[in-house]
Design goal:
With 172 residues, the protein is mainly α. It contains eight helices and no strands. Helix 2 packs across helix 4, helix 4 packs antiparallel against helix 5 and helix 4 crosses helix 6.
């Protein structure tokens, strides 16, 4: 029988990680998504794409692109009555499915990005899984480090803020 007193004591010791000289309480600079393994990332993205397809199918069948109010699922809009930067992206993606590029652009330009992601990511994941490669995982890691650079992050934040202001003026 094992002695549990040593086991309990070890659980109370702070985990220093790979560097035992590191000060206790220090955390890594990366995000949760940055620490995901290849398989966990692929599963997470596959589930996210399935949820996205389900959401689009539900709204496509209900005619959400013709209803300016649409289904109220945006917590920011429900609480503050101000649209968030991504408000209208579902209607934009549905407009893309109908081939209405100008309507899609009007509802929200993020819908174009959403449409591209929903088409490219599942195909890329399938390619990697079938051929046992990790090209998407490497692309994801490189994208993470690129987006952490100030010269890339600041213009993207400005674009999202401009889109948010445009959504507010459109009164989505």
């Amino acid at each position: 029988m094992r002695r549990t007193r040593n086991l309990v004591h070890r659980r109370l010791v702070f985990n220093h990680g790979r560097n035992p000289r590191e000060k206790p309480g220090k955390t890594s600079n990366g995000t949760i998504l940055n620490s995901l393994s290849r398989n966990k990332l692929y599963i997470l993205l596959a589930i996210a794409c399935l949820v996205g397809y389900s959401w689009l199918f539900f709204n496509y069948r209900s005619g959400a692109e013709t209803d300016p109010d649409g289904p109220g699922v945006c917590l920011i809009k429900e609480v503050t009555h101000i649209p968030c930067p991504s408000c209208g992206s579902t209607r934009s993606a549905i407009s893309l499915l109908h081939g209405n590029m100008t309507d899609a652009l009007y509802w929200n330009p993020i819908g174009f990005l959403l449409g591209i992601i929903l088409v490219v990511v599942p195909l890329w994941l399938l390619f990697d899984v079938v051929l046992k490669k990790d090209t998407f995982f490497r692309f994801y890691k490189k994208s993470e480090t690129t987006l952490e650079q100030k010269k890339v992050a600041v213009p993207l934040i400005i674009l999202v803020l401009a889109n948010w202001i445009w959504n507010i003026f459109k009164a989505l």
